[in-house]
Amino acid sequence: MWQRVAALIVKEFLALLKDPKSRFVIVIPPMIQLLVFGYAATYDLNDIPYAVYNEDPGAEGRELLAGFRLSPHFREIAHLSHDADIAPLIDKREALLVVHVGPRFSRDLATAQSASVQVIVDGRNSNTALLALGYVRSIVHRFNDQWAARHGQPKPPAQLEMRAWFNPNLESRWFIVPGIVALLTLVVTMLVTALSVAREREQGTFDQLLVTPFRPAEILLGKALPGFIIGIGEATVIVLLAIFWFKVPLWGSLLTLYTGITLFLVSAIGVGLMISSLAVTQQQGLLGAFFFLVPAIILSGFATPIANMPSFIQKITLVNPMRYFMEILRGVFLEGMPFLMLVDQFWPMAVIGGVNLTLAGWLFRRRLY
Q1: Distance between CA 167 and CA 163 in Å, rounded?
Q2: 177-215: burial string, b at 16+ Cβ within 10 Å, e else
Q3: How many helices (H) and strands (E) does the chain have?
Q4: What is the 3-state secondary structure (H, E, C) of 222-252?
Q5: How far is CA 145 from the centre of its chain?
Q6: 147 lies in the same domain as 201
Q7: Which of 87-96, 105-114, 309-318, 321-330 shows the lowest mean pLDDT across its residues?
Q8: Do 200 and 334 reside in the same domain of the chain?
Q9: Domain that includes residue 136, residue range
């Protein structure tokens, strides 16, 4: 069996590599998209969940925090009372930042000393963190101006101290480039698998394949494995470029990363084979692939946070394997999350992959006979 599958895999690779268009699709567009997204992609910020840790008993601390409550850009989600409450909110992404007013804030202002306000911000998405800090600065500056005008002070009394977690330098590429691993791997894998059977039908060689000793399961496996191998190679190249070209640190383990890549590819290949089984021509296969790619990318959290989407859209994202792979990539790259902490992301992709491959096999046998 495996000798026949290996022969079919070799045939698939020869068909891909001999076709100039196929070689172009596999190599050039992914590299162009990697450079474009890595250097030019930006995000907007409309809603900033934040928590308050106020140790100051005076009125000045409450006045400063009122500026956050009155701002249309901020939404208070918690009022903390201990230092230990800060880390869980940031780790679970419940709060983008925590505003910490120290116990001597009002006293320092009253004695004409500079007073510090600490802002702890989630730096995993550096662009979002920078935008949020810009709004924080405007609120603090407004408070400084108002306080100085009331007390005849020529200099702003409050100074802002910033600390970014997971991305200390707030480099936007640290957030964008890991997501490109999922984006480009999905695009290439989908195109390769979605066009495989359709290309055979269009060229008239599929009927010749049916009279060979290959069983349907062997044909399906021979069509799936080339896409898997190409997907692994594509993901590896992009990961290496992310680390050595864009200087994105990889804090987690390669085992965790490649477990996520493997499960993601299984899910993507299942969808690609379903499209390929239904398509009669390569044009239909290409349209089917892009019909899946666009919503999968939009609903993955690559460009916009899933938490900002309507609730019914968030439920739809639960069947999107790219959603879970995004969490794995950014968790492994930026946070160094261990394998066990990502099990909740692994098993949904495994279930989706199993269902997709089962449906692909059923459709393939149905179209075959």
Answers
A1: 10
A2: bbbbbbbbbbbbbbbbbbbbbbbbbbeeeeeeeeeeebe
A3: 15, 5
A4: HHHHHHHHHHHHHHHHHHHHHHHCCCCCCCC
A5: 40
A6: no
A7: 105-114
A8: yes
A9: 48-165
Output the DSSP codes for 135-198. HHHHHHHHHHHHHHHHHT-SS--EEEEEEEES-TT--HHHHHHHHHHHHHHHHHHHHHHHTHHH
Tens of pLDDT, residues 1-15: 667 777 777 777 777
User: What whole-number percentage of the chain has pLDDT above 90?
Assistant: 33
CA torsion sign for 79, 81, 83, 88 is negative
Place of tokens 């162009």: 32
79 and 110 together in one domain: yes
Same domain, 181 and 126: no
Per the structure, how many domains does the chain have?
2
Structure tokens that stand for 303 in this block: 């460009």
Q: Which of 134, 165, 196 is the last residue of a domain?
A: 165
Does one domain contain both 97 and 161? yes
Nearest CA-CA partner of 328 in 343, 306, 314, 316 = 343
In tens, the pLDDT along 98-109 reads 999 999 888 888
pTM: 0.73
Asked if 14 contacts 230 with a C-beta cutoff of 8 angstroms, the reply is no
- The sign one gets for the Cα dihedral 187, 177, 262, 312 is negative
**CATH number, domain at 78?**
3.40.1710.10
What pairing do the DSSP bridges indicate for beta strands 115-122 and 97-101?
antiparallel
**DSSP per-residue letters across 297-349:** HHTTTSSS-GGGS-HHHHHHGGG-HHHHHHHHHHIIIII---TGGGHHHHHHH
Element at 50 (helix H, strand E):
strand 48-54
Residue 64 to residue 317: CA distance in whole angstroms: 39
User: Are 198 and 325 in the same domain?
Assistant: yes
Question: Of 142, 165, 188, at which residue does a domain stop?
Answer: 165
At CA 249, angle to CA 248 and CA 254, rounded to 5? 115
- Please answer whether residues 322 and 297 qualify as being in contact, where contact means their C-beta atoms are separated by less than 8 angstroms: yes
44: enclosing H helix or E strand: none
